[in-house]
């Protein structure tokens, strides 16, 4: 009889049991490795953004040099005044933090959502529907006329002759002269002027004046920042919606912007708390700080009553250092360019 | 003077008194039980949205086969976003209703166009399992207009709510039956 045609050897009991045990072990290992998300979180229903919460170290071009904490927890916006004095819109106050460590506080009687300081030290504080003006000593000088019912001022910029107030509720930037007279409204949808309109799903809208003479305005619902003339002509827009580091994540980002002396633009985001630098033409350049830098840097769970409690705000001092406000902790981080190897 | 002798209680009288006493005790017990039950049902279980941590225990720990906890939507708070983080996966392939782009494991959120670039999102309660995945997405990036509530047309109002026992945010509480929901209304 040919060996190839011999019937297979019958399985012994030992061989059968050994094979079954090996098979079960392999199947268990396969099941475990095949469910990394569940193994990592222990939750089948986890909202998993962990793959976006680590930043490639090669992209981070800034390093933290120091940190300070605003004495008022509900810190929302920061802006520099003369002498590199940092002004914080926090709670119902303007908190002034000097470089020498001194602190002064000015109570305004209602929630302060944004702040900007003129070259002469005049403080402009944005309350929900109007702007209050304080002199450099913190004495109240004026309260400008309240804007329409839905107003929610969330960003301010002050120039030589103008004050620009980002009104998230009405989705416009209100242009004032320095006496508080309204000169115009910028960013409202207008097909005739080719203005697409600002989309502001949550009360975060920011504005700054660029060295090129144009305004930069966040358009969080369209995931980009836009350039306008002071008269409201729409000039350009940059940005893409993406959780990837070069884009703007979630439903509505960026929520903050600041301008470096050379014209580069810093953006701040919420949800995934991260700050990045873009060239003036909108090209992504580097990361200032990624989500891994902010353990509690996301929005507190279902925080009631205040739409501006999450994410980051940014300001730049006279030395070109970036100051990042983490709204969740009221901490201000000071960062400088990382020394090249 | 001798006291008058009491008439001996006959068996019939004894039985009659006994039955009467039992009836009174029964009625009293019934009234007491009803009063107690009424008192217990003056409160019901509800979730405080400000304390909810979106942990998904509501989907897995309710004694009902499908949880009595459902996602509800505060339209007054909604941004009507084109890229709704309660509806879409964190990095969707595209902003369409294709299943692979949707966050909800049961496709319980319906997306409908309003006007460019706004969309409305509605919850299909028959499909919602209360897992809070959308709640986390909406709260993390957006306004938190999606949130969880115990639906009282489903809840059995257990004395010891199985979800409340494991709730890590201590968000479950007894609320008056006259105000059975804790709704968000504003930013």
SSE layout and pairings?
The complex is a heterodimer of chains A (341) and B (187).
Chain A: H1 13-33, H2 36-41, E1 62-69, E2 75-81, E3 85-90, E4 93-97, E5 103-107, E6 112-117, E7 123-127, E8 131-134, E9 140-143, E10 153-158, E11 162-167, E12 172-177, E13 182-186, E14 207-209, E15 215-219, E16 224-228, E17 234-238, E18 256-259, E19 265-268, E20 275-278, E21 284-289, E22 312-316, E23 322-326, E24 331-337
Antiparallel strand pairs in A: 1-24, 2-3, 3-4, 4-5, 6-7, 7-8, 8-9, 10-11, 11-12, 12-13, 14-15, 15-16, 16-17, 18-19, 19-20, 20-21, 22-23, 23-24
Chain B: H1 11-40, E1 43-47, H2 57-61, E2 69-73, E3 109-115, E4 118-123, H3 133-141, E5 146-150, H4 162-166, E6 172-176
Antiparallel strand pairs in B: 1-6, 2-5, 3-4
Number of strands of chain B: 6
Radius of gyration of chain A equals 27 Å
Helix content of chain B: 25-40%
Number of strands of chain A: 24
* Low-pLDDT runs of chain B: none
Order of helices and strands of chain B: HEHEEEHEHE
Biggest β-sheet of chain A: count, sense, barrel? 4 strands, antiparallel
Structural class per helix/strand content of chain B? alpha+beta
**How many independent structural domains of chain A?**
1
Which CATH architecture of chain A would you pick?
6 Propeller
Level of helix content of chain A? Answer: under 10%
Query: Spans of chain A with pLDDT under 50 lasting ≥5 residues?
Result: 32-39
Structural commentary:
The complex is a heterodimer of chains A (341) and B (187). By secondary structure, chain A is mainly beta. Chain A has a single domain, classed as TolB, C-terminal domain (Neuraminidase). Helix content of chain A is 8%, strand content 37%. In chain A, the strands form six sheets. Chain A has a four-stranded antiparallel beta sheet, with no helix packed on it. In chain A, a hairpin with a 5-residue loop joins strand 8 and strand 9. Chain A is elongated, with a radius of gyration of 27 Å. Chain A starts with 12 loop residues before the first helix and ends with a strand. Residues 32-39 of chain A have low confidence and may be disordered. Chain B folds into two domains: 10-40; 44-176, no CATH class. With 187 residues, chain B is α+β, with helices and mostly antiparallel strands. The radius of gyration of chain B is 27 Å and the shape is rod-shaped. Chain B has helices spanning 11-40, 57-61, 133-141, 162-166, and strands at residues 43-47, 69-73, 109-115, 118-123, 146-150, 172-176.
